[in-house]
Amino acid sequence: MRPLDEKETTQVFEKLFKFTGNNLKNIVESPSHEGPDSNPGRYCFRLNKNRVYYVSESLVKRATNIKRDNLVSLGTLIGKFTKNGSFHLTIQCLNLLAANAKHKVWLKPTSEMSVLYGNNVLKGGLGRITENINMGDGVVVFSMSDVPLAFGVAARSTQDCRKMEPNAIVVIIQADIGAYLRMEDEL
Amino acid sequence: MGAVSLGKKRGKASEKHPPGKKQKRDSFPAKSSRKEGIVSNLDGQNAKKKQKKVSSSSKRSKKDDILSDSDVSDGETEEQEDVGPDSGSDMSSDGDDPFKDHFLQGSDEEEKGSDLDSDSDVSDIEEKSRAIDKEKAREEEDAEAELQLNIKEEADEFRLPTEEELEEEARQPPDLPSLQRRIKEIVRVLSNFKSLRQEGETRKDYIEQLKLDLGTYYGYNDFLIEVLVEMFPVVELMELIEAFEKPRPICLRTNTLKTRRRDLAGILLNRGVNLDPLSKWSKVGLVVYDSQVPIGATPEYMAGYYMLQSASSFLPVMALAPQEKERVVDMAAAPGGKTTYIAALMKNSGIIYANEMKEPRLKSLTANLNRMGVTNAIVCNYDGRELPKVLGRNTADRVLLDAPCSGTGVISKDESVKTSKDLTDIRNSSNLQKELLLAAIDMVDANSKSGGYIVYSTCSIMIHENEAVIDYALKKRNVKLVPCGLDFGRPGFVRFRGQYRFHPSLEKTRRFYPHVHNMDGFFVAKLKKMSNSMAAPTVTETSEVVEQTSEPTASDDEGDVPQHLGKEHTVKKNVSLKNNVPKDEKENNRKPTRKRKDRKRFNREEVMKSREEKRETLREAYRAQKAGRKKGESVE
Fold it and tell me: Beta B351-355 vs B377-380: how paired, if at all?
């Protein structure tokens, strides 16, 4: 387990910024209530076997005596580095993103299951959408009861959405919670 | 005789046969005298016939004796001979429904008798009525006797199969209905053994046969059936085995990190799930009766609002009762149901070390932790026995050990356990569990402000894996059992069949059974670590105290002091041993005599006085030792 170096940190923060915008500082600087100490520490990012974890400092301190091979997970996994060195966010960071998301989309109940099967969000399934989404922005997908379901990239801006036909893709899903059932082994 | 047995079953029906056949029986009245003589001959009867006859005879007032006469098999053969010329076709029916004919014959006799009475004089009538009353009284007595004999003979009817019959059965494929009948019969006999037993058959024989039948009918191997038969009385054993055949209801636990039980229940009800709160002892449990949508695939499940978990898995975490900001270790964490419950109770504060030895199970553990939104967990992949070295001794506040076991309590989930477990399996898992429990105890900090507890649980009902392991830990480490906080279980065994005698505090452990609590077979024990030194406890209450304490040094030196412990530890241990030895001597001197005294007369004041004296001497000894230790340290 080691801290991220410069390049890796920029990669991670770039990806996160797409979804959270200026709320990124919330993620980085929020006080953590984990750990047995009474003073809240901070959160930090650690890398172990090409996986990036978002974890409280008190946990990090106490995980140092576990060998690298035997350490499986710390805190929350937020993403993985691929073999070529690019960083992808994984579904486990959905809660983190949902708390700090700038752009949100709410789905109608009828298209919830479709998204959970891994399909993209179509215009016909859109319930609500926040304003000022541009193409290529990171978007978090919620159900009507504010349960976070998935996150992805906006295919169109909000204005364009209004003009599209019902079958056009609005959000290209990168990860959805259906993966916990469909692809548990690959997580 | 075969025809007769058929007749028994159709006895009732035979009574309803058309009255037309009555006329053919007119030839019988002359036989009455002969049949009276045969009344007393009750031997060699077909019991079923008799039973039918007796029940009907008790209904009839007059001529009951004639009915009983007709019970006689000889009577039947007589009838058959006589009936021959009358109705050849009736022969077979006679063979089929002997009762019908006898009853009808009896009614014919009644008519005849009434004719006689009306013809004779008044005095004759009186005499005759007296005679008839006497006969009636005698007949009632006989009927009673026959009833009793019938019951016995009906039990006799159930004989244990002979060896030849068993061999024959073994050759053919098992006949399940007859097996089931035999099982029921044996259970009935065993529950009222004195009156229902067959001559020459011991209880053991019945039980042996029951074991064989249960094994064949339900699919258990010999070892497991033997263990179950030893542990439970027969009726309860049947209930248990039946309960193992059915699945327990599906339960789920609300994830209080994300939602509340009320809200979740509302959402699921909207989706079409039929559910109820689990019980009054759980605030987060829900039981699912049926559901229109797959309960493990709802968006709420995937968002981490609840976890599918059996009700018995709630219990060890409830017993552990982790507080916020504590250090908790879960030594066998996969698939993560209990770990996530711990995190929910701690509200994501503190730190949880979730350890799992088997790699394939790690994936489900991490997936569940992430899904349920647990942020204070560190997952590692070690053998549980190495954990004290890695995480440090005397560092954790609470430890949960849900030990790998033989799984005999969850047979309803996994039928292969019925046939695959053997004594060696149990012994192996028992050894592993003992080692794991010692490692768990070593990890806990006895001086922790809020904790110092270890919870040991298994999903097994074997004594080897439950009480024996806890007893071993009580002897090897300085821990004591405390109440689990689960009132509704059965207390664990303190002694068992003369083979085992455990520490009396083992009654604080809890056992759960499927046929009593409607959850999987489970065992929970909560230990509190008294001190961080590795010495075995000094003041124990079993009768083994005398032997134990007379050699504390020997056993402790061999077993408990690992080689790599530093000097401080050995010093501490020596000190504590010094503490122990004088105490023990006094205990030794007192305990046996105290016990004898108590048995002779239970005098409360004396007991209290002697206890006070004991405390004084202990205090003095401790003070002496404190002084002695300083000298000891300077020496070393």
Answer: parallel
